[in-house]
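Whiteboard transcription, Tuesday session. T.W. wrote the structure tokens on the left side:
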């Protein structure tokens, strides 16, 4: 029988600027307000594809856990070996799973490091490396915008005909650089500008998502649902009035209710109790405001085999990124969206050895491939949607990645 591979976790103790620790090369991150986990180096990676991709991901992860001899002097969520996951929106496209060689985490001022192998504890960067990117050239296309407006109008017509109640349509925008794009600069910029979002990086997909699809911790489940958006003006008094109009908007409240209901229905079979606030709150970000609801639940204790992968299989895709009814909305997306989403709008985040984890929906993001990047934005389309306003909303959502890459 082959010997087990040592995995060691020790406490560091001090407050660490996680994103500043990332070296040049392939990095991984899930950071919000300074807390979270980052990793680098690849111990093992794979891709999964198809309708059983969440189950296949569990099988692959557990096959590696069986080979580990884990020494964990810290304990707690996100300590020990970590699986970084970035799942595709569609089962027909590839999802990426990575176990980093080195992981550093921090929560509430407590930090730790995990490394795989028999080597001594890895050294951390003393001072953050100064990183900048050359100017990007964006491939703006007025004709593409006009085509997207037409697609939104087609979706509204399908809703009025009774085919569907809501559908989320996305669009993309690409840019090129004279040099290879270094994701670290963009990640730091996103974290500074959007501290209430989860800043992520997995296999070239980087972004700052405000939407937590799933947190599982000690049998408690949380999902933050966002649906219904309005752009900010930059004037505080004006934005306060806009927030009030968003909270009263029948169109946005309808869109939001579909998204909340899809999450609540997915969690209900696994929870002994759930809490769904009667009204959403308005989440303020630097560029936009969203209607938001935090759905929480307690897992049924007898369902001990329920883990993150089980819940992901039920939650994805939610109405927030697909539509209602889900199956029909997915068909409409396939028919009229006219692009590959890849891992955009799929679950992204981390899973630990206990089966706990945090995964968001990959929004406000872009896929880097050497000196090119493709960014994405989507809008929830309901009966009251106006195609021109949806185009403006998508442009506002693009601004997060555009500014971070500038």
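and on the right, the sequence the group agreed on:
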């Amino acid at each position: 029988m082959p010997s087990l591979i040592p995995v060691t976790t020790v406490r560091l103790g001090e407050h660490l600027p996680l994103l500043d620790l990332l070296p040049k090369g392939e990095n991984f991150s899930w950071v919000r307000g300074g807390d979270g986990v980052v990793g680098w180096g690849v111990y093992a990676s794979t891709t999964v594809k198809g309708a059983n991709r969440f189950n296949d991901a569990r099988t692959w992860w557990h096959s590696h856990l069986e080979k580990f001899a884990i020494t964990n002097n810290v304990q707690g969520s996100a300590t020990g070996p970590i699986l970084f996951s970035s799942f595709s929106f569609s089962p027909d496209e590839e999802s990426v799973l990575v176990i980093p060689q080195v992981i550093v985490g921090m929560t509430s001022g407590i930090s730790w490091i995990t490394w795989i192998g028999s080597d001594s504890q890895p050294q951390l960067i003393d001072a953050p490396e100064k990183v900048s990117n050359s100017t990007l050239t964006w491939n703006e296309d007025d004709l593409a915008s006009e085509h997207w407006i037409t697609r939104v109008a087609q979706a509204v017509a399908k809703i009025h005909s009774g085919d569907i109640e809501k559908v989320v349509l996305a669009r993309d925008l690409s840019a090129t650089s004279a040099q290879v794009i270094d994701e670290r600069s963009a990640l730091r910029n996103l974290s500074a500008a959007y501290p209430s979002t989860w800043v992520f990086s997995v296999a070239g997909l980087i972004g700052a998502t405000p939407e937590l699809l799933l947190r599982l911790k000690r049998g408690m489940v949380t999902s933050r649902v966002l649906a219904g958006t309005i752009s900010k003006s930059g004037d505080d008094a004006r934005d306060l009035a806009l927030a009030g109009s968003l909270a009263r908007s029948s169109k946005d409240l309808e869109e939001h209710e579909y998204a909340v209901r899809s999450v609540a229905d997915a969690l209900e079979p696994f929870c002994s109790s759930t809490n769904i606030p009667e009204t959403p709150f308005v989440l303020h970000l630097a560029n936009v405001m969203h209607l938001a609801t935090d759905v929480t639940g307690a897992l049924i204790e007898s369902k001990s085999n329920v883990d993150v992968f089980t819940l992901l299989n039920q939650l994805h895709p939610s109405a927030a990124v697909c539509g209602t009814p889900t199956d029909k909305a997915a068909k409409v997306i396939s028919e009229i969206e006219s692009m590959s989403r890849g891992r955009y709008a799929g679950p992204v985040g981390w899973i630990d050895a206990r089966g706990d984890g945090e995964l968001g929906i990959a929004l406000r993001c872009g896929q880097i491939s050497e000196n090119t990047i493709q960014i994405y934005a989507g809008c929830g389309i309901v009966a009251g949607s106006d195609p021109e306003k949806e185009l403006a909303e998508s442009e506002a959502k693009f601004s997060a990645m555009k500014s971070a890459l500038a």
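Someone added at the bottom: The domain at 5-120+135-405 is CATH 3.60.120.10 (Anthranilate synthase).
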